[in-house]
Design goal:
59% helix; 208 residues; 10 helices; 5 strands; single chain
């Protein structure tokens, strides 16, 4: 099985690329769903967050208030690093379990993990290939303002808190530029998928 990482900065269109890859037949895991699972009520992850950031990041029902936690970590680099240090090992362990299960089911398949901070965490090293989704900076800023309904200044702060798109692109085996809309993005994604499928077949032959 071919293990593929899919990453990109905030509001660059990564979710759409992930959706197209799933439609084409890839096994796709959204790291956001894993991140939510590892901080669900009763988990070690949530307990560690409360110990680090205090009970004020909880909702009345005991679940994590992601907006409150986000406001803290987007404004404070050290707080963000502490959060990442807590959660990344838990998230990566859950992802590895998922990858093992997919490999057992489909040796010739392509398994894709979609994660925004894959490069920053070092998690990208676990994959055979890395896809980086990107777009023009002005397009990214407009998408983020519209999606989150936030001001330009707030959007710029969130973008600045992440690794620059140009830096992420240096790690890529495949690049997908979403600047020019859905149709052009789909065409690029389909072209990348064909290459991934060919690589997955080669990987299986090498194991025979």
């Amino acid at each position: 099985m071919l293990r593929v990482g899919l990453t990109g900065s905030i509001a660059v269109g990564k979710s759409y690329v992930s959706q197209v890859l799933a439609e084409l037949g890839c096994h796709v895991l959204d790291a956001d769903s894993t991140a939510r699972a590892v901080v669900a009520p009763g988990t070690v992850g949530l307990q560690k967050i409360v110990e680090t950031f205090g009970p004020e990041v909880l909702r009345a029902d005991g679940s994590l208030d992601r907006a409150k936690l986000g406001a803290i970590v987007f404004a404070d680099e050290r707080a963000r690093q502490r959060l990442n240090a807590l959660l990344h090992p838990l998230i990566m362990a859950a992802q590895d379990e998922w990858l093992s299960a997919r490999a057992a089911e489909d040796l010739r398949g392509v398994a894709v993990i979609d994660a925004a901070l894959m490069i920053e965490s070092g998690g990208y090293r676990r994959f055979d290939k890395l896809i980086v989704v990107h777009c023009r900076p002005r397009v990214q800023l407009e998408r983020l303002m519209q999606r989150e309904r936030i001001t330009r200044a707030a959007a710029e702060q969130r973008i600045a808190a992440q690794m620059a798109q140009t830096e992420k692109m240096r790690y890529a085996d495949f690049l997908i530029d979403t600047s020019d809309g859905f149709e052009r993005t789909r065409q690029q994604t389909e072209a990348v998928y064909e290459q991934l499928r060919s690589l997955a077949a080669d990987t299986e032959r090498s194991h025979d």
